[in-house]
């Protein structure tokens, strides 16, 4: 049965979707069966995997509301072992439709029940805003992975996110766990990046991933070609960093570290 991980940060522009997509790709490259759920109406994760979200008949929204079986909405990707449950433009309206629904926070959890046995990992790319769609992602997840940009304003977002996670644990999902934080857009040449890393250890004393994602032009370019860094520039520093992150992720899962 899959371990379901929500990739989340309430601050935009911190490398959240980039981390969800490239971690998923490298987990699949390591021989794992992975499903990436694009829960962000902007559909950036879908686009980064080569999916034209404007021209697909159904996606995660249609699966959420029961219009199609979840398996029928899952699409293959160029990566063997990696599939995507894509976002479509219709997802933007889901928040309005779910407001008055019974057990509105549990739609995604119920949707993924159909798929959990097909994969080793399910990664959910959450929207940066806090709304009913994001809450659905937290309730469906077993744990949360938090990408954090190496800048001071990002630390404020971490505090807000931890408050949100605690609220979810108190009211909806007591067993929800913080898997850890991964540092993104890191520049070892700057004192600021090093200071932010030190500060993060206060938030997550035992849960900072050792694999640090560097700031990278090649990494920023890859989505515009509908590719992950695995296929766009596998020899780049960013590619090697995400490969290390995937290995560390698996080792944590297996209790090696």
Automatic annotation (TrEMBL):
Residue ranges annotated for the AAA domain, each copy included: 3-177
What Pfam families does this protein map onto? Answer: AAA_31
Q: Which domain of life is it from?
A: Bacteria
Name used for this protein in its record: Chromosome partitioning protein ParA
Q: Which organism is it from?
A: Candidatus Uhrbacteria bacterium RIFCSPHIGHO2_01_FULL_63_20
Q: What is the lineage of its organism?
A: Bacteria, Candidatus Uhriibacteriota
């Amino acid at each position: 049965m899959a371990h379901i991980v929500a990739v989340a940060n309430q601050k935009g522009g911190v490398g959240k979707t980039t981390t969800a997509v490239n971690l998923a790709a490298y987990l699949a490259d390591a021989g794992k069966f992975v499903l990436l759920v694009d829960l962000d109406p902007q559909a950036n994760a879908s686009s980064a995997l080569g999916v034209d979200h404007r021209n697909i008949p159904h996606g995660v929204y249609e699966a959420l509301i029961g219009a199609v079986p979840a398996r029928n909405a899952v699409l293959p990707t160029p990566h063997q072992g990696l599939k995507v449950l894509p976002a479509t433009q219709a997802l933007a309206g889901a928040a309005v439709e779910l407001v008055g629904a019974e057990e509105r926070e549990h739609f995604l959890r119920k949707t993924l029940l159909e798929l959990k046995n097909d994969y080793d990992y399910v990664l959910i790319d959450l929207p940066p805003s806090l709304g009913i769609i994001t809450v659905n992602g937290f309730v469906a997840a077993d744990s949360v992975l938090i990408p954090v940009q190496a800048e001071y304003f990002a630390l404020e977002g971490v505090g807000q996110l931890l408050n949100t996670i605690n609220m979810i644990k108190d009211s909806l999902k007591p067993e929800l766990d913080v898997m850890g934080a991964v540092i993104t857009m890191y520049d070892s040449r700057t004192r600021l990046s090093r200071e932010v890393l030190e500060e993060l250890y206060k938030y997550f004393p035992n849960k900072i991933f050792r694999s640090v994602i560097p700031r990278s032009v090649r990494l920023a370019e890859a989505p515009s070609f509908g590719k992950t860094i695995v296929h766009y520039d596998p020899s780049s520093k960013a590619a090697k960093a995400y490969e290390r992150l995937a290995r560390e992720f698996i080792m944590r899962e297996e209790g090696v570290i």
